[in-house]
Amino acid sequence: MSDEFNKESSKKPHPKSTYSHKQRIALIAAVSSLLFILLMTLYPFKFTDPNTFSLVAIHTYFNNPSNIYDVTLNIILFMPLGLSTTYLFSTKKLQWKPLIIILLASLSLSLLVELIQIFLPSRASTWSDIVANSLGGLLGALCFYLPQFKQFISLRRLMACLVLYMTLTFLFSIPLPRGSHLKSWDPNFSLILGNEQTQDRPWQGTISDLYIANQVLAKSELIQAFASPDDLRLLRQKAVAFYSLSGQDSYPDQIGESPRLVWQGDRPECQGNCQPILNSQHWLATERSANWITEKIRETSQFTLITTVSTSKVNQTGPARIISLSGSPYHRNFTLGQEGPNLAFRIRTPITGENGLRPELIVPDIFSDTTPHLIAITYANSLLQVFIDSVEHSFYLELIPGKSALLNIFPGEIDDNLLIYALVYYSLIFVPLGLILSLMTMFYQGNVGFVILWSFMGGLAPVLLLEVILATGTGRAISLSNILLGAAIMTFTLLLVSGGIRFWSWLTLSRGIRKAHP
């Protein structure tokens, strides 16, 4: 009897050995995922020493733009690691401890990789990569529990998710208005007229007086400047730099704080008080960095630039640099340029990046002829405005996070439709909120009054609070249109998901009835 029992027992696989075998597969998958991550993030492994390595330098190294494609790939890259690692020490019952461990492990690994990328010139470290990688590891861990996710949903857990989501949303929204400040401007850049520091973006035309202030001039002052350009001298008390460009000699700053503009290349031929033509053979640049201008603007995060320009060619591209406070074609504080017949203005902020490219303000058909134009450019509280020849002929660009997100998703040129940008930004915030609220209404389908009250408190209140945070941070007035837009997105999501859930429940119930009564 014992021999037969031992014989039968030997035919059955031991549960412990089978589980260990699966764990070994998960371990191999985790190690493979880790090696693949290192390969994808650190190749070609050509390390160099950075110029400086400090907390300030690290922050600068991480201040690089990202886009939706990089974010998506970084999420996918870490998901296999999160899934396989969760399997190593998890049971089938959903637990918080493995999720927290995976999140912290993904965050630590991502931070380590981004720090190592500082030593790789071919790589660019960004804070968004760390967030995306951490999210990818967490999503991979959640995939392990996906089959029993329905059992996980409860009113208490949804309430916790709602509170956590709202808290994180507002914590991240508080510093958003600071994304429009100018404190990231580099004081080592020179002021250049008619070209780039690398001499490969020449512009051909003339520039008259150049006025720069570290505050936004009042509308009455702008009207005065447009009515009589000579009156700019009367506004010199507000200027941080003022250059009168006439003759062929160097041009001192009449405020007396910034370096002279001196000719680069050949000296142009110009007699008397004429305005010399800038071109690829001769252009102007300050004899050293214009750090006074930069530092004064950094103090206020505001500026006004007024000048009169006339192009000699209507088809200049690059954009061809008219006035630029920059160090290279890809690093600038601001640039006024010509792109065909259009005016292009780029400004460096945490949102637009070191190149100020996304987004940039394009003013159409300003240089469609060689007529001189008086141009005034102002910036304050995330609002960039360009006035051409009068205060009535104006164009503006509001540097809101939604615009940057949309431009990263759609890299091509798109119309300057602020409603679309706001729609993208508010959708990113209020679609998840509407999803959570719609799941919560499942538990109170019979109590219409509670559903309405909870939707108001959980939906409209966050919309109002977010608008107050953004308006206070940028110094603008509270926008009723933004409130209505956020509320509409949240309500539409709530109704859509709730309707889908009810339809699915009805469909499932109908199938069950048909099976019970064929």
What descriptive keywords fit this protein?
518 residues; alpha+beta; seven-stranded antiparallel β-sheet; six-stranded antiparallel β-sheet; 14 helices; 13 strands; globular
Structure description:
- With 518 residues, the protein is α+β, with helices and mostly antiparallel strands.
- 47% of the residues lie in helices and 16% in strands.
- The protein has helices spanning 2-11, 15-42, 55-62, 68-89, 96-116, 127-144, 149-152, 155-173, 219-227, 291-300, 401-409, 418-440, 448-474, 480-516, and strands spanning 190-193, 205-213, 239-243, 261-265, 282-286, 303-311, 320-328, 331-339, 342-347, 361-363, 373-380, 383-388, 394-398.
- The protein has a seven-stranded antiparallel β-sheet, with no helix packed on it.
- A hairpin with a 2-residue loop joins strand 11 (373-380) and strand 12 (383-388).
- Helix 4 crosses helix 5 (96-116), helix 5 (96-116) runs antiparallel to helix 6 (127-144) and helix 11 crosses helix 12 (418-440).
- The longest helix is centred in the last third of the chain and has 37 residues, at 480-516.
